[in-house]
Amino acid sequence: MGLFSKLKAAVKDDWCGDCSSKMDEIEKRLYLMPMSVGHYVDHKEAQYYIKNLIPINSKAEVPIGMYACRITVYRCPECQKRIAMVLPFLPVRDQERTEFAHYYKNGELDSFIWHN
Ligand SMILES: [Zn+2]
């Protein structure tokens, strides 16, 4: 394996850090967050998301000035490892003003994602 693929694995969301292969996106969900513009607080703990997120179907359901977040689940076709990426954002007209993404590699959000 070349240096280039290793670098890519380190920086890209959808590359498996163990096998350096491209992961498949297997699920994408949208949630409302109980935070309004100007009051965003970054949360790393999976528990925060499990307790506070409200599943929604589209961005149109996000009230103006409220944050939403997208959870994307990736699976590595080589080692079957799954990673959930939480990306909070503020919808601003047609744009998304994104905050820091958080990654959960040990199934922390699995039961929440699959049972909501
Ligand atoms: Zn892998």
Number of domains: 1
Work out the number of β strands. Answer: 6
Radius of gyration: 15 Å
**Strand-and-helix sequence, N→C?**
HEHEEEEEH
Structural class of the helices, strands and pairings? alpha+beta
- Gross morphology: elongated
Number of helices: 3
Structure description:
By secondary structure, this protein is of the alpha+beta class. It has one domain (3-114). 18% of the residues lie in helices and 38% in strands. The chain contains 3 helices and 6 strands, in the order αβαβββββα. It has helices at 3-11, 46-52, 110-114; strands at 24-36, 54-56, 66-75, 82-92, 95-98, 102-104. Strands 1, 2, 3, 4, 5 and 6 form a 6-stranded antiparallel β-sheet that branches. A hairpin with a 6-residue loop joins strand 3 and strand 4. The radius of gyration is 15 Å and the shape is elongated. It starts with a helix and ends with a helix. Zinc ion (ZN) binds next to loops. Zinc ion (ZN) binds at residues 16, 18-19, 21, 76, 78-79, 81.
What distinguishing features does this structure have?
single chain, 116 residues, alpha+beta, six-stranded antiparallel β-sheet, 6 strands, binds zinc ion
Summed up:
By secondary structure, the protein is of the alpha+beta class. The chain has three helices and six strands. It has one domain (3-114).
